[in-house]
Each structure stands twice: as structure tokens, then as C-alpha cells.
Design goal:
Radius of gyration: 19 Å
GO molecular function, one term: DNA binding
Number of helices: 6
Distance between the termini: 25 Å
CATH topology of the domain at 15-111: Arc Repressor Mutant, subunit A
Strand order of the largest sheet: 1-2
CATH superfamily of the domain at 15-111: Winged helix-like DNA-binding domain superfamily/Winged helix DNA-binding domain
Keywords: DNA-binding
CATH class of the domain at 15-111: Mainly Alpha
InterPro entries: WH-like_DNA-bd_sf, WH_DNA-bd_sf
Organism: Nitrospirillum iridis
Largest sheet: 2 strands, antiparallel
Shape: elongated
Biased composition (Low complexity): 132-143
Number of strands: 2
Structural class: mainly alpha
């Protein structure tokens, strides 16, 4: 699909870019690795730091830095999206939970995802509607 100035179609935001913009509205210096960490925590609330490190394929010091940026107490760069809690039966394990601000951002990201349009429309000249050929939404078609 090529862009044409005489075309009545308009460019729509893709879900990944819209999600990053929503995260950067919280903190303009949000990195891609921090965004991935936050999304993993949204999907797996109560995840341990070790588990998050495995998912991110990151070293423990990198995971600690990401969690510090997403939580409170990291100076003026803290996002207050996540809080770390120590397990009552094992003081060595810390689990990650969303704060109210984090839940709000997760809801925003869910809304963006539900309203997503494909990055590439495989149909030649059809305007991008966010629906597959069968009429199902993009999000449900890929599920």
C-alpha cells in the first residue's frame, strides 16, 4: 500500500508505538527494556526478580536497575508503577506488584491493544480498518 497525497486514507498509529508513547507520557526517558519489564510484570503480577530476569534475558544488576526505575525511591526518575514485596516465608525472594498508577497504565495499554490496527495490511488496496479479512479484530485474530 503506497501513500498518495490525493488519498483520503490517514495514517493510523500502530499498537506498539502507541503503547511506547503512553509509557513515555509517564516518563519520557522510558527505555525499551524498562517497557518490556513493565509489560512482563503486568502479565505476571507477583513475578520474582529472578523470573523477570529470565524473561528479559538480563543480568541481576540490570533487573534491579529496571525495577528501581519502575518503582518508588529512585530519585526524580522513579515511575511509581511497581512495588517490590518480600515473601513472608522467604526474606530472600522479592515479588513485583503493580501500584495503582501501574494498574492505570496497564488498563491504558490494554485499551491500545484492543483498538490495534495491523502494521501491514496484506490486502493490496484495501484501507486499513484494524479488521482481518474474516471481520475479526486484529487482537482476536492473533489470539
Amino acid at each position: 500500500m503506497t501513500a498518495n497525497l490525493d488519498d483520503n486514507r490517514h495514517r493510523q498509529r500502530s499498537a506498539p508505538l502507541a503503547a511506547m508513547e503512553a509509557m513515555r507520557a509517564v516518563d519520557e526517558q522510558f527505555s525499551l527494556l524498562e517497557a518490556c519489564g513493565f509489560l512482563y510484570i503486568c502479565e505476571n503480577e507477583g513475578i520474582s526478580l529472578r523470573e523477570l530476569g529470565l524473561l528479559l534475558r538480563a543480568q541481576p544488576h540490570t533487573v534491579s536497575r529496571i525495577v528501581a526505575r519502575l518503582s518508588t525511591g529512585f530519585g526524580n526518575r522513579a515511575s511509581d508503577l511497581v512495588e517490590a514485596r518480600t515473601l513472608h516465608h522467604d526474606n530472600r525472594v522479592r515479588t513485583l506488584h503493580l501500584t495503582e498508577r501501574g494498574r492505570t497504565l496497564c488498563r491504558t495499554l490494554n485499551t491500545i491493544t484492543v483498538q490495534a490496527v495491523p502494521l501491514i495490511d496484506d490486502r493490496d488496496d484495501a484501507p486499513s480498518t484494524g479488521r482481518s479479512a474474516s471481520g475479526a479484530s486484529w487482537a482476536s485474530a492473533s489470539a
